[in-house]
């Protein structure tokens, strides 16, 4: 039984935008000397944080993970309740193969994501975007657990991720692959069906489903092999979606094994 790689998730660091002044004010407000000094300090802090964010993002874009650690840790020390900084640090720790620390960072970030919106003008409190962000972090957390060979925790993380992500195909596929690699046939089949429903174009989900069903084939008294319903269909769908995919030869062998015909069109690349 071949092991499948988890789907990767792109690294994202969301940046808060400074509040704009009200353009409709007719008269500029009268500020005291103390207020002016405070505004200057706020502006200096914003410029300082933006410089650190730029430094971290450039390092992450270049996959220079170690160079991103220091600015992110400084940002967190200055603004410990900003979940986006913790999330970005989780991505960096994952890139450094520090998977335990990545999980810790994601967990902190998830706890800090606002559960409700108190400021309609604050983009960091958008409940739809925040829910999707939690789903992404849980998926990455599951990937980290897999690297740590903690399949049970990975399954739990992927299951939670599917409930948050508006496009749960990746989470369900990762759950499907994890259950497959762990030998949990029923769990893998269930997750595969959900992955296919969420993303019908995910070829590897059909490969896993077909492989599991072929493995459950039975031989009758006459020696004839009978595969469960859906086995041939799933394998043929894989070839339709990925005729030259990594599992194409295995799929053709399985189809031959269960006595199903392999269409010749699967061997041809679609014309552009």
Question: What does this protein look like?
Answer:
It is a single chain. This protein has 272 residues and is an all-alpha fold. The chain has a domain at 44-166: Tetratricopeptide repeat domain (Serine Threonine Protein Phosphatase 5, Tetratricopeptide repeat), CATH 1.25.40.10. It is built from eleven helices and two strands. It has a two-stranded antiparallel ribbon. 33% of the residues are buried.
Q: Shape, please?
A: elongated
Percentage of residues in helical conformation: 55-70%
Poorly predicted ranges? 9-21
How many β-strand runs? 2
H and E string: HHHHHHHHHEEHH
User: Percent of residues in beta strands?
Assistant: under 5%
Tell me about the largest β-sheet. Answer: 2 strands, antiparallel
Distance between the termini: 34 Å
Highest-level CATH class of one domain: Mainly Alpha
CATH architecture field of one domain: Alpha Horseshoe
Mean pLDDT, rounded to whole units?
85
- The total count of helices amounts to 11
Q: Helix/strand-derived class?
A: mainly alpha
Strand arrangement within the widest β-sheet reads 1-2
């Amino acid at each position: 039984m071949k092991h499948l790689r988890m789907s990767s998730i792109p690294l994202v660091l969301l940046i808060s935008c400074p509040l704009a002044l009200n353009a409709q004010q007719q008269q500029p407000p009268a500020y005291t000397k103390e207020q002016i000094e405070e505004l200057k300090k706020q502006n200096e802090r914003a410029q300082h944080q933006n410089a650190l964010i730029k430094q971290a993002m450039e390092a992450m874009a270049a996959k220079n993970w170690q160079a991103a650690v220091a600015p992110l840790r400084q940002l967190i020390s200055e603004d410990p309740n900003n979940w986006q900084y913790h999330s970005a640090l989780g991505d960096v720790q994952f890139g450094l193969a520090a998977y335990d620390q990545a999980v810790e960072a994601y967990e902190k970030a998830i706890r800090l994501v606002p559960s409700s919106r108190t400021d309609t003008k604050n983009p960091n409190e958008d409940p739809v975007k925040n829910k999707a962000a939690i789903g992404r972090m849980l998926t990455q957390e599951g990937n980290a657990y897999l690297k740590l060979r903690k399949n049970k925790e990975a399954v739990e993380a992927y299951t939670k991720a599917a409930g948050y992500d508006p496009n749960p195909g990746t989470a369900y596929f990762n759950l499907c692959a994890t259950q497959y690699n762990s030998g949990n046939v029923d769990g893998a089949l269930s997750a595969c069906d959900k992955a296919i429903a969420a993303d019908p174009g995910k070829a590897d989900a059909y490969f896993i489903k077909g492989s599991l069903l072929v493995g459950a084939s039975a031989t009758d008294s006459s020696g004839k092999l009978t595969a469960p319903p859906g086995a041939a269909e799933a394998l043929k769908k894989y070839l339709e979606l990925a005729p030259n995919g990594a599992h194409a030869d295995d799929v053709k062998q399985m189809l031959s094994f269960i006595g199903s015909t392999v269409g010749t069109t699967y061997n041809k690349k679609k014309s552009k």
